Amino acid sequence: MATTNFYNQQESYNTLRLAFHDEDPSLSTLYNWFILLKRGPTNLTDDLRRGHLSMVTTEDNISAVRPMIETDKRVTYQQLRISLGVEILAHQPYSPDLTSCHFYLFPKIKEQLLGKWFTDAEEIVPAHEKSMEATP
After folding, report:
1. For the chain, what are the domain ranges?
2. 28, 30, 96, 119 - which has most CB atoms within 10 Å?
3. How confident is the prediction along the chain (136 residues), in pLDDT tens digits per residue?
4. In 1-136, where does DSSP find H-type helix?
């Protein structure tokens, strides 16, 4: 007969801390998890997100790629892409989604603000505006 160990929040935190060291969730995060789980059935699966599609790891793709890798371990991404028929999407040369026309300003602003300390956001805004005005 199997037994189930039910940890309280502190015991769970100590166990996670022992297993993951500095990468464990915070105690407040763990408390929030306990509250959610006590409410009843919870969906623990990830929701779909914007960005790369998850179709890359389908069984069809795995079975198509596995023989190629087992035959030649030096198979390239390009060869895999062609064999699976993966299309590379072209981007506009100056797409605002990919780059900002102000990227060149960042190093100049950082150089002007180097070594200055600010206690709150109200101090940063005028200093940033002043450095923007001084930057050609």
Report:
1. 9-38, 56-84, 105-131
2. 30
3. 444 557 777 888 888 788 877 777 788 888 888 888 778 776 766 666 565 555 567 788 788 888 888 888 888 878 888 888 888 777 666 655 545 566 677 788 888 888 888 888 888 888 888 888 887 7
4. 9-20, 27-38, 59-71, 77-84, 105-113, 121-134
